[in-house]
């Protein structure tokens, strides 16, 4: 009892200093009605572009009107990691009060500042503003002639001949609905922005808003006046609960169904193959070897039966495999738990940064499972220093990812981008890692090593059996590459949507399809790993431990190769830092896939072999 209280006290000591890192806003925000005439806050966020992965905080740019009394909004960890920097603005907007034209500010730009603005305009940067938790939207017409929203609006207009004009007048069109609202209150259901470039005099509204000369960025010292108009319109067809639908239109769902059908065909093929192995071949072999009369008729024993004395021989470098398996379980549980939360609607797009915040939160607290399963397998591999194994589980693979991000963050910082993590965020991540994850891994490892060792149905021979030549497709890297084809075939269509959402700063919300694909992927990885290891053992190669791990996660190799293809064919990134960001993040995704589904492949194969060899009488195999 005393030890238990010490454990709880230690957990509180480690968790409380890092609790601020998990600040989140509610996933299900209650609808907020606004009274007529009520002052609304319009927030400045960032600049982002499909041609660059470097975001810039609006409030820190010299050619943006800064608030007189800046009040940064408290951000959750996910918002910080995605480059958000949300600050109030000086736009004066009142509920249901129209404004024909108001002056925001006049800025005197130096030649360098004008050139910087022109460069960002030419890179097609978009401005992100936020009002009532809705991002400013540009109205677009899709391929089906439907009206949809595109997040943000262009900073300016690139001109022929290499020039650029800045959008210095914004018309805000705010849509509202009164359904279910109290008297004289309204719900905001749309936030549209119509930007214009209009040359005007300092501190004055332009004489006309429907044309005129553009406000050019000359690349020299100049003065620019920024103005805005506010218009209100009742929208009876959009309610507060559906106001995000216009942002989430990503084309027809038919392609997603094609992805599901493609995945199901692959799954059915694999299931049929596994059924043949389990119900016919293995069942027949086990029946023969358990029947003494039939055994006498089968003297030409070959295949998986002959390696029974070596199949559970501990692998080389088991002290490295056990921590990787623990980290893989930790990541796999994080992935599926986060998907479940998104599926039930807790992590919806209106909850800005929630997906990343919860993913990190779940990863840290899944450390207990990482330590437990790592310790269990470390004991199977006849390791004795369980404490050192626990520390390695908590530090080894996360340290690889953290080092990559730390190096890349240095390059991002040199570009003064908001994607660069502040020192406080780095400190919070380190506190989470060493203050929460590491102790939880250690606690899980403690309980794992206290458990009795996993008993194998067959004893291991003292002298290893010689391995004959195996077919080329079952050798080392060949079997690994072969094993990744079908799992990748399950997910590659859905990957296109995920990559587009990740690298074009759009919203991914098809979590129902994603969850179904993820479930099919899980079953596919299990079946591929079991089938290929069965064939490897039939070729009398008993080195299956590492092989099953890499076969299960080998689709990560194809994911990285596909990301290269996507970069070359779909993206228009040219600057070297953005390219570095893209490929390092793609590498991290591939590595996480490798260890998570590699662990799934390993444990499914391990359970399969224990069941198979446990079903055969030991005397029948000797």
Automatic annotation (TrEMBL):
One of its GO terms (cellular component) is membrane. It is a multi-pass membrane protein. It is found in: Golgi apparatus; Membrane. Residues 1-21 form the signal peptide. Pfam families: EMP70. Keywords: Golgi apparatus, Membrane, Signal, Transmembrane, Transmembrane helix. It comes from the Eukaryota. GO terms for biological process: protein localization to membrane. The chain crosses the membrane at residues 255-279, 320-347, 353-373, 394-414, 426-447, 480-499, 511-537, 549-568, 580-609. InterPro entries: EMP70. Belongs to the nonaspanin (TM9SF) (TC 9.A.2) family. This is Transmembrane 9 superfamily member.
């Amino acid at each position: 009892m005393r030890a238990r209280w010490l454990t709880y006290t230690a957990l509180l000591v480690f968790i409380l200093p890092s609790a601020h890192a998990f600040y989140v806003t509610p996933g299900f925000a209650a609808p907020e009605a606004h009274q007529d005439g009520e002052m609304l806050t319009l927030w400045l966020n960032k600049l982002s572009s499909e041609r660059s992965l470097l975001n810039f905080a609006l409030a820190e740019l010299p050619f943006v009107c800064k608030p007189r009394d800046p009040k940064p909004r408290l951000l959750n960890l996910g918002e910080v990691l995605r480059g958000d920097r949300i600050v109030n603005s000086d736009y004066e907007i009142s509920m249901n009060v129209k404004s024909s034209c108001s002056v925001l500010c006049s800025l005197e730009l130096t030649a360098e500042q004008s050139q910087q603005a022109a460069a960002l305009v030419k890179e097609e940067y978009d401005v992100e503003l936020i009002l009532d938790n809705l991002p400013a939207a540009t109205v677009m017409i899709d391929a089906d002639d439907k009206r949809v929203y595109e997040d943000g609006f262009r900073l300016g207009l690139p001109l022929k001949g290499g020039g650029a004009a800045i959008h210095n007048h914004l018309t805000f069109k705010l849509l509202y609905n009164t359904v279910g609202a109290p008297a004289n209150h309204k719900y905001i259901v749309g936030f549209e922005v119509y930007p214009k470039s209009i040359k005007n005099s300092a501190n004055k509204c332009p004489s006309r808003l429907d044309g005129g000369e553009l406000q050019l960025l000359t690349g020299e010292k100049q003065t620019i006046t920024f103005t805005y108009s506010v218009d209100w319109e009742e929208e009876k067809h959009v309610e507060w609960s559906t106001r995000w639908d216009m942002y989430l239109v990503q084309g027809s769902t038919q392609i997603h169904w094609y992805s599901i059908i493609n995945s199901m065909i692959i799954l059915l093929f694999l299931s049929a193959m596994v059924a043949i192995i389990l119900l016919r071949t293995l069942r027949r072999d086990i029946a023969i070897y358990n029947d003494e009369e039939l055994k006498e008729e089968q003297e030409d024993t070959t295949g998986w039966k002959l390696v029974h004395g070596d199949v559970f021989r501990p692998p080389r470098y088991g002290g490295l495999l056990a921590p990787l398996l623990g980290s893989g379980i930790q990541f796999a549980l994080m992935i599926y738990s986060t998907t479940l939360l998104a599926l039930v609607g807790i992590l919806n797009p209106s909850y800005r940064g929630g997906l990343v915040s919860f993913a990190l939160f779940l990863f840290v607290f899944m450390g207990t499972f990482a330590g437990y399963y790592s310790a269990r397998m470390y004991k199977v591999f006849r390791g004795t220093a369980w404490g050192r194994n626990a520390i390695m589980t908590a530090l080894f693979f996360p340290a690889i990812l953290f080092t990559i991000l730390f190096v890349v963050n240095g390059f991002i910082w040199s570009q003064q981008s908001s994607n660069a993590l502040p020192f406080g965020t780095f400190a919070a991540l380190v506190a989470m890692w060493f203050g929460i994850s590491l102790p939880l891994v250690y606690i899980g490892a403690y309980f794992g090593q206290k458990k009795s060792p996993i008993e194998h149905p067959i004893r291991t021979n003292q002298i290893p059996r010689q391995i004959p030549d195996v077919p080329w497709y079952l050798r080392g890297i060949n079997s690994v590459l072969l094993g990744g084809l079908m799992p990748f075939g399950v997910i590659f269509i859905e990957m296109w949507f995920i990559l587009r959402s990740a690298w074009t700063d759009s919203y991914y919300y098809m979590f129902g399809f994603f969850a179904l694909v993820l479930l099919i992927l899980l079953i596919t990885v299990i079946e591929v790993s079991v089938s290929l290891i069965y064939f490897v053992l039939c070729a009398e190669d008993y080195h299956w431990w590492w092989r099953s791990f890499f076969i299960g996660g080998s689709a990560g190799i194809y994911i990285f190769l596909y990301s290269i293809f996507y970069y070359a064919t779909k993206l228009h990134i040219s600057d070297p830092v953005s390219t570095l960001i893209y490929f390092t993040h793609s590498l991290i995704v591939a590595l996480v896939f490798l260890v998570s589904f590699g662990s799934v492949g390993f444990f499914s194969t391990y359970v399969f072999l224990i069941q198979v060899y446990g079903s055969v009488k030991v005397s029948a195999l000797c």
